[in-house]
Write a structure and sequence with these properties.
about 375 residues, 7 helices, about 15% helix, M1 Pyruvate Kinase, Domain 3
C-alpha cells in the first residue's frame, strides 16, 4: 500500500485498513452469588419424591407456666393452675423461674396442681400468673409401682419440590458466526441462564412459600417450596417483645439475647448468622469501640466474619436475598437444599422445528429444615 501520511486521529475509525479494537472478555455486573448455598454445601442425599418428608421428635417438656389469675396468697398458695397439667406428676420437684423456693407436687387434677410449699426448708416466695415453672425431676417411692407411661409422638414434616427452568434458543447463523468474547454462543447462553437459576434457588430457599391450597401442584397450580423464613415460628424476635433489649438497632445485646433464648429452649447449635447489607454493617460495628492499630499497620479492617459468643461460634454470611431488617440464626446441620433424584440442574436438548438450536435448563429442588425451634429470626430491625 502506498504511503498516505494519514494518522488514525484524522482518518476516523471506519477506514477498512483499521481493525476493530474490542476486548475479548464479556463483563457481567448482575449479582449472582449464592453465599448461603455455599455455606450449607452439597447435600449428602437427594429427595425421592415431590413431597419430601422427614421425622422429628422431642423429649417430654420440663417447663410450663402458671395460668391462674385467682391466686390470692402468692407466698402461701398451695393450689394453682398451669397451662399443661399433663406435664406434671405426683412427686415432681418444681421451682418458679426467678425464685429459690422449691415445691413438691402432691396431686395433679387436670391443670390444677397441689403442692407442698417451702419444701426442704426453702424460703417461700411469691407466685404470679404467667410465671414459668421448671420441673427439676420426679422422686419415686421405694418399692412403688411403675408410673403411668408417658411418651411423645414422632411427627412427619415435609416440603414440596419446586421446578426451576429456563429456555435457551440460538439461531443457526448465530451458532456458525464468529463471536467476540464467546467461543460457543449456545454454551454462553447456558451459563447465563444457569447462573440465574442458582441465584433464584437461593432466593426461594430463603423467602419462598407454598400455595395456600393444592400445595402438591397441578396443571393449573404451580408447585412451590416453603423457604426458611416461612418455616420459622417458635423463635421469632422483634423490638417491643417482652424481655427484648430496647431499641431497633441491632447490637450485641439483642443478638446474644436471641442466641440465649434459642439455646435455652432447644439443643440446636446456631452456627450461621445470615444477614443482608444493613445488618452486616451493624455486626461490623460491634468491634468499632475496641479497634486499635499500631504505627506499622497500613490496612484498615472493618469486617466481622466470625462471631463467637457463649452460645456458639457463628459464621456471619452476607447475602443479598435476606430482607434488610432481618437476621437469620441457623443451625446449618439441620438445613439442606436437596435436588429431586436425577433432577439437579441439567440441560435438556429439545427438538428444533427450524433453523435454530434449542433446549431447556431444568432443576427441581426442595428445602429440608429440621426442628424449626433450633433456629431463630430477629426481625423489624432498623435499616438506616
Amino acid at each position: 500500500m502506498a504511503f498516505t501520511g494519514k494518522a488514525t486521529y484524522s482518518a476516523g475509525v471506519d477506514l477498512p485498513e483499521l481493525a476493530e479494537d474490542v476486548s475479548d472478555l464479556v463483563g457481567i455486573v448482575s449479582p449472582y452469588e449464592t453465599p448461603l448455598l455455599d455455606a450449607l454445601g452439597d447435600p449428602l442425599r437427594a429427595a425421592t419424591s415431590t413431597h419430601h418428608e422427614w421425622l422429628e421428635d422431642e423429649l417430654l417438656p420440663n417447663k410450663d407456666v402458671i395460668n391462674d389469675t385467682t391466686i390470692t396468697s402468692p407466698e402461701s398458695e398451695t393450689q394453682f393452675d398451669v397451662a399443661h397439667g399433663d406435664r406434671f406428676q405426683v412427686g415432681d420437684q418444681i421451682q418458679a423461674e426467678g425464685s429459690r423456693e422449691l415445691m413438691l407436687v402432691t396431686a395433679v387434677a387436670g391443670n390444677t396442681l397441689t403442692v407442698t410449699r417451702e419444701y426442704g426448708g426453702s424460703v417461700a416466695e411469691a407466685l404470679a400468673n404467667g410465671q414459668a415453672i421448671n420441673i427439676l425431676g420426679n422422686a419415686a417411692l421405694e418399692g412403688g409401682d411403675r408410673p403411668t407411661p408417658r411418651f411423645t409422638n414422632r411427627v412427619r414434616k415435609g416440603n414440596y419440590t419446586q421446578i426451576f427452568t429456563a429456555a435457551v434458543e440460538v439461531s443457526g447463523s448465530d451458532v456458525a458466526a464468529r463471536q467476540l468474547g464467546v467461543r460457543d454462543e449456545m454454551d454462553y447462553q447456558k451459563q447465563l441462564r444457569l447462573r440465574e437459576l442458582v441465584r433464584d434457588l437461593e432466593n426461594t430457599a430463603i423467602n419462598g412459600t407454598m400455595p395456600s391450597s393444592n400445595a402438591q401442584g397441578s396443571g393449573t397450580v404451580r408447585r412451590t417450596m416453603r423457604g426458611i423464613l416461612d418455616h420459622l415460628s417458635t423463635n421469632v424476635f422483634a423490638p417491643g417483645d417482652a424481655g427484648f433489649p430496647t431499641g431497633s438497632d441491632l447490637d450485641e445485646a439483642k443478638l446474644n439475647w436471641a442466641l440465649r433464648r434459642i439455646w435455652e429452649s432447644s439443643s440446636g447449635s446456631v452456627d450461621l448468622i445470615v444477614v443482608g447489607g444493613a445488618q452486616k454493617r451493624r455486626i461490623n460495628a460491634f468491634i468499632g469501640t475496641t479497634r486499635a492499630y499500631g504505627p506499622q499497620d497500613t490496612a484498615y479492617r472493618d469486617g466481622v466474619g466470625l462471631y463467637e459468643s457463649d452460645f456458639g461460634v457463628c459464621r456471619v454470611v452476607l447475602t443479598r436475598w435476606v430482607p434488610q431488617d432481618v437476621v437469620l440464626l441457623l443451625d446449618s446441620s439441620r438445613v439442606r437444599v436437596l435436588p429431586l433424584a436425577g433432577r439437579s440442574f441439567h440441560f435438556k436438548p429439545l427438538a428444533s422445528g427450524g433453523d435454530y438450536e434449542c433446549g431447556q435448563l431444568i432443576g427441581e429442588y426442595t428445602l429440608e429444615l429440621k426442628n424449626e425451634a433450633a433456629h431463630g429470626i430477629i426481625q423489624s430491625l432498623s435499616t438506616t
